[in-house]
Specification:
Layout (H helix, E strand, L loop, with lengths): L1 H11 L8 E3 L5 E3 L4 E3 L2 H8 L2 H23 L25 H7 L16
């Protein structure tokens, strides 16, 4: 009976349109809403019909409705795209900074008197 329900669900539901469905690099399937792992598509579809997933969907819908209501009333600013700060990495062995800093980083070069200009008496 369970297998028949899985087959029916696979035929009727398009997983490409499900925003919470994700296939990971190991070949298993994840529900991004509930953070659960599933071995096959049928198991994922059974999960979507389950109590935990339905509760999480209801919680998410209530939260989004509350935020939308607050934005409409002017209590919250409209959500903007989060800006992620780009991390800058220093390459090992590379010289960073401006010219003055590079001058300070260079090792001191000793100055030797010119041997050719000395008088040999």
């Amino acid at each position: 009976r369970r297998e028949r329900l899985r087959q029916l669900a696979l035929e009727t539901i398009d997983l490409n349109k499900d925003p919470y469905f994700m296939k990971n690099h190991l070949g298993s399937y994840e529900c991004k809403l509930c953070l659960t792992l599933h071995n096959n598509e049928g198991s994922y579809l059974a999960h979507t019909q389950g109590k935990k997933h339905q509760q999480n969907l209801a919680r998410r819908a209530a939260k989004e409705a509350l935020e939308k209501e607050q934005v409409n009333q002017g209590q919250l600013p409209a959500p903007a795209k989060p800006r992620v700060k780009v991390k800058k990495f220093v390459k090992i062995g590379s010289v960073q900074g401006d010219k003055a800093e590079r001058q300070q980083e260079r090792p001191a070069q000793p100055s030797f008197p010119n041997r050719l200009s000395r008088d040999r008496s």
